[in-house]
Task: structure prediction
Amino acid sequence: HDPVKEADYFLKVVKDYIGKIMLCLDWEGDDNPKFGNKEWCTKFINRVKEKTGIVCTLYTGTDGCKQNISLAGKVPLWFAGYPKPMVTGWTLPKWKYDLGKWGKPDIWQYTSTNEKCDRNTTNMTKEQWIAHTKANVKTEAPKAKPAITTNITEEQLRENVVNALDMLVGIKEGSAEQSLP
Result:
């Protein structure tokens, strides 16, 4: 699996959504023969940027962060880290990860359960979120406040979720005609 060919295929599949959605590379070890290759993600992300002007977000866990430390500070990070005991509900757990040069991620997926959805948190503003979707807005990922804060109230967390979901109102799955507000 050549990363440039994979990126080209990815862009072909999402072409109608480019500039409307955040482009993400899901880098996990499950059934991924290239997991562990320290250059694969860089080549994929560079190809996406070359073709679109958009800095692709890296979605990964602790091992993926270690493998891709050269991308720290250059691409947005959507971190998958699930504290133990497993979290359910909307109470944000305490941050307990050391991601080295990555610091705190732009987005943190803190649950992965059999519930209806995984739960994520971010402190990105609506404008920063939209900037992640646009070509040539910035050459580097917009910097949000760290996604993890221990003094966020449940009400503030809910407001963050509602604001993020508000951007998706009117978008119909599979519809290329719909765009973010």
